[in-house]
């Protein structure tokens, strides 16, 4: 998967999980910080569950922590490096 | 001044239903003075602001801490704390329309959560097997949801009480409920004898408090009281 494909899919999952609480926001996931999206703990863990399903990966324990992610782009980067690891 | 009812070893929990609407002040300025980040989401920012103001009202009226003495700082993992007043601990939580504030003479964590998420994926992935089985063994979907939010709110209150938030993986400890209905944590790393108070509130919310005092007292607060306090808050120019 290319970073662009991952980016698109992450956006879709984010919209699905988060958008109901943040309709008024434009979804520029690269610019906004996670806290701008009302990403409370339960939404964060739900996002992790959905991303793990979608990309068939497992977040390592150290990534099960909201403070590890400043923006949604950090999810894209993390998933990309994991997928790269799966191929190699 | 603080009244005599706050005996040593009591945790006080204040829960409040807010009404979404404008506040009678310049909100951005009040946010700055209360240390609330100017988030893009107005709703989120307002709830955080209301929670901070509620804390001020409670500390001032019930705990005898004058507004001018209230200075907040942060612990190592970001847990807000009251500077210069080590004897008073607090914790805040908000979800949907509800805001909660716990103030205690010992460490405390509070969580309120609206029941709105599909929970089964979460408990399977993030809870211990024992917790997931407890949830799944409920006879109906509705009671499963209830059990999920019972455990979720207790786990959140716990990680907030110990001050680490989600840096402590949720499956490293188990929250159990015994036959008397009391909850307890099973965590080898735990240093304090934690107790839990858990209840459903206003039909669709679950509230949990993880505390370490002898007694716990809960009351609801009127939103109008906080709005009134904000109205008289001396905003610095």
Reading the helices and strands of chain B in chain order gives: EHHEEEEEHHHEEEEEH
Into which percentage range does the β-strand content of chain B fall? 25-35%
State the share of residues found in helices of chain A, binned by percent. 40-55%
Number of helices of chain B: 6
| Dominant shape of chain A | globular
- Strand order in the sheet with the most strands of chain B: 4-5-1-11
The span between the termini of chain A is 13 Å
What kind of sheet is the major sheet of chain A?
A: none
Largest interface: A-B, 25 and 23 residues
Structural class of chain B, by secondary structure, is: alpha+beta
Poorly predicted parts of chain B: 1-7
- How large, in whole angstroms, is the Cα Rg of chain B? 18 Å
Can you lay out the helices and strands and say which pair or pack?
The complex is a heterodimer of chains A (88) and B (237).
Chain A lengths: L2 H16 L22 H15 L16 H16 L1
Helix pairs in contact in A: 1-2, 1-3
Chain B lengths: L9 E8 L9 H8 L7 H21 L9 E3 L5 E3 L6 E7 L2 E7 L3 E7 L5 H7 L2 H8 L4 H21 L12 E4 L5 E4 L8 E7 L3 E7 L3 E7 L1 H9 L6
Parallel strand pairs in B: 1-11
Antiparallel strand pairs in B: 1-5, 2-3, 4-5, 6-10, 7-8, 9-10
What does this structure look like?
The complex is a heterodimer of chains A (88) and B (237). Chain A is an all-alpha fold. Chain A is built from three helices and no strands. Chain A has helices at 3-18, 41-55, 72-87. The radius of gyration of chain A is 12 Å and the shape is globular. The mean pLDDT of chain A is 78. In chain B, the strands form four sheets. Chain B has a four-stranded mixed sheet, with helices on one face. Chain B has a three-stranded antiparallel sheet with strand order 6-10-9. A two-stranded antiparallel ribbon of chain B has the order 2-3. The two termini of chain B are 28 Å apart. At the A-B interface, helix 2 of A face helix 2 and helix 3 of B.
């Amino acid at each position: 998967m290319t970073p662009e494909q991952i980016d698109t899919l992450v956006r879709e999952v984010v919209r699905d999980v988060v958008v109901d609480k943040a309709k008024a926001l434009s979804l520029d996931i690269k610019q906004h910080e996670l806290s701008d999206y009302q990403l409370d703990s339960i939404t964060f863990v739900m996002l992790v569950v959905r991303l793990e399903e979608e990309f068939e990966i497992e977040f390592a324990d150290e990534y099960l922590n909201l403070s590890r992610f400043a923006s949604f782009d950090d999810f894209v980067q993390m998933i990309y490096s994991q997928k790269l690891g799966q191929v190699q | 001044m603080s009244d005599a009812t706050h005996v040593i070893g009591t945790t006080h929990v204040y829960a409040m239903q807010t009404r979404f609407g404008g506040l009678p002040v310049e909100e951005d300025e009040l946010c700055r003075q209360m240390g609330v980040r100017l988030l893009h989401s107005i709703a989120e920012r307002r709830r955080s602001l209301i929670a901070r103001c509620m804390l001020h009202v409670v500390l001032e009226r019930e705990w005898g801490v004058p507004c001018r003495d209230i200075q907040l700082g942060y612990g190592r993992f970001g847990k807000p704390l009251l500077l210069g007043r080590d004897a008073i601990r607090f914790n805040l939580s908000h979800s949907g329309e509800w805001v909660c504030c716990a103030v205690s003479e010992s460490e405390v964590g509070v969580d309120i959560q609206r029941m709105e998420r599909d929970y089964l994926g979460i408990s399977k992935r993030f809870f211990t097997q024992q917790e997931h089985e407890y949830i799944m063994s409920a006879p109906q979907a509705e009671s499963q949801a209830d059990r999920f939010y019972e455990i979720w709110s207790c786990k959140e209150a716990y990680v907030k009480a110990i001050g680490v938030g989600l840096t402590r993986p949720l499956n490293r400890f188990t929250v159990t409920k015994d036959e008397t209905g009391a909850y307890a944590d099973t965590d080898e790393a735990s240093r304090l004898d934690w107790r839990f108070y858990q209840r459903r509130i206003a039909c669709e919310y679950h509230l949990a408090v993880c505390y370490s005092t002898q007694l716990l007292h809960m009351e609801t607060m009127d939103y109008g009281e906080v709005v009134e306090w904000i109205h008289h808050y001396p905003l610095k120019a």
